[in-house]
Design brief:
By secondary structure, the chain is of the alpha/beta class. The chain has 11 helices and 18 strands. Helix 1 packs parallel to helix 3.
């Protein structure tokens, strides 16, 4: 009989990895998480949990402290479109607070966590070995730049080179081909709203999320380089709110945000969360999707095709809506997005509710 160190090996100990391990334990499997970093893991993200993500955490017995989020607002100059969620609120949660709450729950359920780095993955029809651990299945939750994705050959081939003449035309029409990145900064200031405000600047979007009684996070998305001070100065309404507020900790960056995969499964390996492919952070759904994928991966450990179908179902709306938004945001249509949301409130509300639920 084959001896396993665990039923499920989770590579990556961030929130999605911990959720995957918790899901495995709740399903009756043993779970082991391999992560090179220790302590509460921080990273660049908007820190706003959509209502469905909060519901998913509650189902797992996790209730992190934070600020209720009542909805989403799009803001540009003196234009403002906002929609308040029809159901329960979302929540703004400092990333380190979320990680600590998930780690406590994982520990309580008997999830083993070890410090290590995966440099090689080998597998056969019975199991997989990575990071010195022999398991029945491997869930790769190791983020945008997933090592497991690369090692298992699941990264999509880079797009074919664009002919020089076409490239020059695209360059004249705007930054649509530029890779997008994110930078997050925290300010010590009392939140002035219970909404996530998305301030649309000339070349970046600034996501403002209340995460504590005296702390807001500002995540800027756009083409590199993202100069936080310069971009905020170009959004006077937001700059005035933050004037004089102390910056809390160092800025954190992430990207490029666009990541493509040719498949989400390879033998006994499943890609979960950002590792499985990512479009952009424009809709703020990364964790909601990651949690849903973790649940689906555990439910389809012995059914690769079933996980592929579940992955596509869970991500379909996100991929379609986010791709359309990114295309508009990186084109001459960018300036029309907020005015359109103001003029068509039912459309804006419908999009927000679809993503929230």
């Amino acid at each position: 009989m084959t001896a396993y160190d665990a039923d499920v090996l989770v590579v990556g100990g961030g929130p999605v990895g911990l959720v995957a391990a918790i899901e495995a334990r709740l399903a009756g499997y043993t779970a082991l998480v391999v992560e090179p970093r220790s302590g509460a893991i921080d990273k660049a993200c908007g820190e706003g949990l959509m209502p469905r993500a909060v519901t998913a955490l509650h189902r797992l017995g996790v209730d992190p402290a934070g600020r209720d989020l009542a909805g989403i607002a799009y803001v540009r100059d003196d234009l403002r479109a906002e929609h308040r969620f029809a159901g329960p609120p979302g929540r703004g949660v400092r990333r380190t607070v979320l990680h600590a709450a998930l780690a406590d729950r994982a520990d309580a359920l008997g999830v083993e966590r070890v410090t290590g780095r995966v440099l090689q993955v080998t597998q056969d029809e019975d199991g997989v070995v990575a990071g010195g651990v022999h398991a029945r299945w491997l869930l790769a939750c190791d983020g945008l730049h997933s090592t497991v994705r690369r090692l298992t050959g699941l990264e999509a081939r880079p797009p074919r080179a664009v002919p020089a003449a076409v490239s020059r035309v695209l360059a004249r029409s705007g930054p649509r081909t530029a890779r997008r990145f994110g930078v997050r900064r925290h300010y010590r200031v009392a939140p002035w709203t219970d909404l996530v405000e998305v301030h649309w600047g000339r070349r970046t979007e600034a996501y403002v999320t209340p995460v504590a009684p005296d702390l807001v996070g500002v995540a800027l998305l756009g083409a590199a380089p993202v100069d936080v001070d310069a971009e905020l100065a170009a959004v006077p309404a937001l700059a005035d709110r933050l004037a004089g507020a102390a910056v809390d900790a160092a800025d954190r960056g992430a990207g490029p945000l666009r990541q493509r995969t040719r498949a989400r499964t390879a033998g006994r390996v499943r890609l979960v969360g950002d590792a499985s492919g990512y479009v952009d952070a424009l809709t703020g759904e990364g964790l909601r999707l990651g949690f849903a994928q973790a649940r689906a991966a555990v439910a389809h450990l012995d059914d690769a095709a079933g996980y592929e179908r579940a992955w596509r179902t869970e991500t379909r709306d996100y991929r379609l809506l986010t791709s359309a938004l990114v295309a508009a945001a990186t084109s001459p249509l960018r300036g029309a997005l907020v005015p359109a949301a103001v003029r068509l409130p039912p459309v804006f509300a419908g999009a927000v509710e679809r993503l929230a639920r």
